[in-house]
Amino acid sequence: MTDRSELDNLVEAARQTPGLFDLTGRTALVVGGTKGLGQAMALGLAAAGADVSVASRGPEGLEETAEAIRQLGRKGDSLAVDATDEDQVAGMMRWMVDAHGRLDILVNSQGVVHLQPIIDFDLDAWQRVIDVNLKSLFLCCKHAGRVMLAQGKGKIINISSVRGFQGRAQDAAYAPSKGAVNQLTHSLAIEWGPKGINVNAIAPVFTRTAMAAPSLDDPATRNWILSRIAMKRPGELEDLFGPVVFLASDAANFMNGHVLPVDGGWLAT
């Protein structure tokens, strides 16, 4: 039987639950935040109270996304950065500290895909996928980690994929890169968890984005995809709001090294 004073303490703690998801006063950086999953997660973080900077290699969508963040009542900044270049990544993190004083949340949402019969797989395309999906993510974690270690606190959220758990035909780069993202997430969580940094990942299934459009627009491929998803629909961008806010918030303070599938039941099927 629970001691009355312990129960009273638990009741009081429960009253604080809604506030655990409030990101007011937090500063976030979303790399790859100008379209698709990254843009959606940037807006979700802003709606939860965070000031959000978005970074992308090219200018397309940068200022539009920053303005959408400002429409949600938060500070929104945009940075044109090649995240595969270590000097540019280091400079981006210095800019975040100079402009905002700290970096509380990093979301790595950069990603590309290339499918080709493996015996013909183009080496330059393979290297490009590895550089964008893995190298740039590692560099962003490395340099954000320096900032967060100095603060003694931070949240890093890497975007993986259900393909990080599974291979597929003609995929010599994307699935292996996402499997490596999962393992890098685990390694960072082990090293930095004792120092106040939570490192987790989100693994979406096929989600209605430009990257997934060729698969979802092809009737045969779409039917196969839906046959694997227990909820019988593809992912929507809004499906990422809750998971990214959760992992960025105090509600996930004891979540570390976890790869969270947001897949409608794909991996369970």
Task: Summarize the structure in words.
By secondary structure, the chain is α/β, with parallel strands linked by helices. The protein has one domain (18-268): Rossmann fold (3-Layer(aba) Sandwich). The protein is 45% helix and 14% strand. The chain has helices at 4-15, 36-47, 62-71, 86-100, 123-151, 174-192, 213-217, 219-228, 241-248; strands spanning 27-31, 51-56, 76-80, 105-108, 154-159, 197-204, 259-262. Strands 3-2-1-4-5-6-7 form a seven-stranded parallel beta sheet, with helices on both faces. α2 (36-47) packs parallel to α3, α4 packs parallel to α5 (123-151) and α5 packs parallel to α6 (174-192). The radius of gyration is 19 Å and the shape is globular. The model has no long low-confidence stretch (mean pLDDT 96).
Architecture blueprint of SSEs:
Blueprint: H1 4-15, E1 27-31, H2 36-47, E2 51-56, H3 62-71, E3 76-80, H4 86-100, E4 105-108, H5 123-151, E5 154-159, H6 174-192, E6 197-204, H7 213-217, H8 219-228, H9 241-248, E7 259-262
Parallel strand pairs: 1-2, 1-4, 2-3, 4-5, 5-6, 6-7
Helix pairs in contact: 2-3, 2-9, 4-5, 5-6
Concise account of the structure shown:
With 269 residues, the protein is α/β, with parallel strands linked by helices.
Tally of structural domains:
1
Classification by helices and strands: alpha/beta
Oligomeric nature of the chains:
single chain
- CATH homologous superfamily designation: NAD(P)-binding Rossmann-like Domain
CATH topology: Rossmann fold
The residue-averaged pLDDT reads 96
Q: What percent of residues are in strands? A: 5-15%
Question: Could you give the order of the helices and strands?
Answer: HEHEHEHEHEHEHHHE
What best-fitting shape do the alpha-carbon axes yield? Answer: globular
The top level CATH class name: Alpha Beta
